[in-house]
Design a protein that fits this description.
By secondary structure, the protein is an alpha+beta fold. The chain has two domains: 48 residues; 362 residues, Jelly Rolls, CATH 2.60.120. Helices cover 15% and strands 31% of the residues. The chain is built from five helices and 23 strands. The strands form five sheets. Strands 8, 13, 15, 16, 17, 19, 20, 22 and 23 form a nine-stranded antiparallel sheet that branches. The chain has a seven-stranded antiparallel sheet with strand order 12-11-10-9-18-7-21, with no helix packed on it. It has a three-stranded antiparallel sheet with strand order 1-2-6, with no helix packed on it. The longest helix is centred in the first third of the chain and has 44 residues. The relative contact order is 0.17.
Length: 426
């Protein structure tokens, strides 16, 4: 029925038919809209449940942590990594062939973190441990996935969240909403990195923001093909549903687009350790003008097998990233970064008050500010050594800052962090 029928004075009967037709179409449209509204919800529920089934493998034992987490002890051969099509026939490597400075020898690696006499544990240890031949996996809950923008984005960082100290365009740097205070080295081939960092529980302003402290091992350009391996501690209400400080890892081979994830939330990192759970709470944490607790993290490339291994503390060799996951990092890293990162969402038009590190500036020093000490790199001969030509970078030093130093006990070190919003950082 076209517009000409209306302009030529149609009969009342025809108008009635036309009106009836449009009413019919209108109500059909309402019905289909309400159906369409329901379909995505049911489809989302199905997608979420499928994703949970993929992530949460059948446990041999489950442990309830005091913080509400459930830690599943999953057989080592059933972990999420082996869902990767390239890992179907992978021969599990239970230990690295080489450790920095020589052949790997379990006897030389102590158990636990005894570096400063203040042991760091995970909260779930209070209620049990996982048996041999299993790995502890933090169970993913439905509400964890629903907090993400989509099932596909669950467990992933936002694009462009790596500090780019070489960029000359601050607008390009800040458009991601991520801010950093880091020390870095570049210009060589790096086969690993190590540092000891004190652990805090920074305050987060918005649930969609986070605060973390970590090591980055980077390969490639800062474009779409960037490779990154990351490890450290973080507070992320969006990812975990609380404000606890947690051990984490991350990897990507395409600048956070499609590949990689936090912890074991996708196939990639292969865990071999039954003591430490990725994404589980760290306890205790440092207190301002009080006891300081720190953790050591070492990531290095096994010269024989080519995989990137991670060690936590002075004794826990946690597992490895197979080299095939990467393009540039299949060979070596071209840049190492140590330091802090926060999300600045500026939700109220002002800079976030999310804290980095302790929430205090570097000049306050030990017991008040956050630090990385004994920072080292692994060279082509698989030796740990002091880095040369350390640079520093921060987008807004009035919000978060970094200061380097060097002495006999701490080697190369730096203090970093800050409170975010303050009179000089509006």
């Amino acid at each position: 029925m076209d517009a000409a029928h209306f302009s030529s004075g149609p009969s009342r009967r025809r108008v009635g038919l036309t009106a009836g037709f449009f009413l019919f179409v209108f109500f059909c449209g309402l019905i289909s809209l309400s159906c369409a509204g329901r379909l995505p919800v049911s489809r989302q529920k199905l997608e979420v449940q499928k994703h949970l089934n993929r992530l949460n493998k059948p446990p041999l034992k489950s442990i309830k942590s005091p913080d509400g987490d459930i830690i599943d002890c999953v057989h080592i051969s059933h972990q999420p990594a082996f869902d990767h099509p390239f890992l179907k026939d992978h021969k599990l490597q239970m230990r690295p062939s080489y450790h920095p400075e020589g052949l790997y020898d379990q006897k030389k690696v102590s158990t636990g973190n005894k570096e400063r006499g203040k042991p760091i544990t995970q909260l779930w240890h209070m209620n049990g441990r996982c048996p041999e031949d299993t790995i502890p996996i933090r169970r993913t809950k439905k509400e964890d996935v629903l907090r993400a923008s989509s099932v596909k984005r669950f467990g992933k960082k936002r694009h462009r969240s790596i500090p780019q100290p070489r960029s000359a365009d601050p607008d390009l740097i800040n458009q991601s909403g991520h801010q950093h205070a880091i020390a870095y080295v570049e210009g060589d081939k790096y086969y690993g990195a190590k540092s000891t960092m004190n652990v805090w529980e920074p305050k987060i302003q918005q649930p969609n923001e986070f605060s973390l402290s970590q090591i980055w091992l980077l390969g490639g350009s800062f474009g779409e093909d960037l490779n990154s391996i990351e490890a450290g501690w973080q507070v992320s209400p969006d990812l975990y549903g609380d404000n606890n400080t947690r051990l984490f890892t991350y990897w990507t081979s395409d600048a956070y687009q499609a590949t990689g994830c936090y912890n074991l939330l996708c196939s990639g990192f292969i865990q071999v350790n039954s003591e430490i759970a990725m994404g589980a709470s760290i306890s205790p944490v440092s207190a301002y003008r009080n006891s300081q607790y720190d953790i050591s993290i070492l990531v290095w490339k096994d010269p024989k097998e080519g995989n990137w291994w991670m060690q936590f503390g002075s004794g826990y060799v946690l597992g490895y990233w197979p080299s095939f996951l990467f393009s540039y990092l299949a060979d070596s890293a071209s840049m190492i970064e140590w330091g802090g990162e926060v999300v600045n969402s500026e939700s109220d038009g002002q800079h976030t008050s999310t804290q980095m590190g302790s929430g205090h500036f570097p000049e306050e020093g030990f017991g008040k500010s956050s630090y990385f000490r004994n920072i080292q790199v692994v060279d082509s001969s698989n030796n740990l050594k002091a880095p040369k030509g350390i640079g520093t970078f921060t987008e807004q030093s009035n919000c978060y800052d970094v200061q380097t130093g060097s002495n006999g006990d701490w080697g190369h070190y730096f203090y970093y962090g800050g409170p975010g919003r303050n009179p000089n950082c509006p």
